[in-house]
Amino acid sequence: MIGKFVEVIIDRPKGSVHPNHKDIVYGVNYGFVPNVLGGDGEEQDAYVLGVDKPIEKFKGKVIAIIHRKEDCETKWVVAPAGMTFSAKEILEKVHFQERYFTVSIEI
After folding, report:
1. What pLDDT, on the 0 to 100 scale, is given for residue 18?
2. Region label for 39, one of left (φ > 0), alpha (ψ between -120 and 50) or beta (otherwise)
3. Which of 1, 32, 44, 97 sits most deeply, having the most CB atoms within 10 A of its CB?
4. How much is the CA Rg of the chain, to the nearest whole Å?
5. Could you tell me the end-to-end alpha-carbon distance of the chain, in angstroms, rounded to an integer?
6. CA–centroid distance for 59 within its chain
7. How far is CA 27 from CA 24, 35, 73, 84, in A?
């Protein structure tokens, strides 16, 4: 999927609080890719990087995939066309949520 363009529907905009874990504040926009099932049988989760304000939806390019060792699902990393981030930069931006997992990043 890396390199593909997708639309992400944002259900947890930047600055929002996780509905079940009040200590998790979203540092980036987070949502799902409609009509694409993830490993958990739900729609594919995605982080949107490179957009610094809360948004409702976003069309961009999948630039990386986050694999969680302890989980059956992956998280896609989506960014504006032409924008890239290193694995280190991605980890820094998603640390607010991924800190609870052992992850690897496929770029």
Report:
1. 94
2. alpha
3. 44
4. 12
5. 10
6. 13
7. 9, 25, 20, 18
Strands 103-106, 57-68: parallel, antiparallel or unpaired by DSSP?
antiparallel
59, 7 Cβ separation under 8 angstroms? yes
Residues 6+ apart with CB under 8 A from 39: 71, 72, 73, 74
Amino acid at 61: K
Q: Which of 92, 29, 18 is nearest to 55 (CA)?
A: 29
Per-residue pLDDT at 14:
98
For 102, left (φ over 0), alpha (ψ -120 to 50), or beta? Answer: beta
Predicted model pTM: 0.96
Question: What is the number of other CB atoms lying within 10 angstroms of the CB of residue 95?
Answer: 12
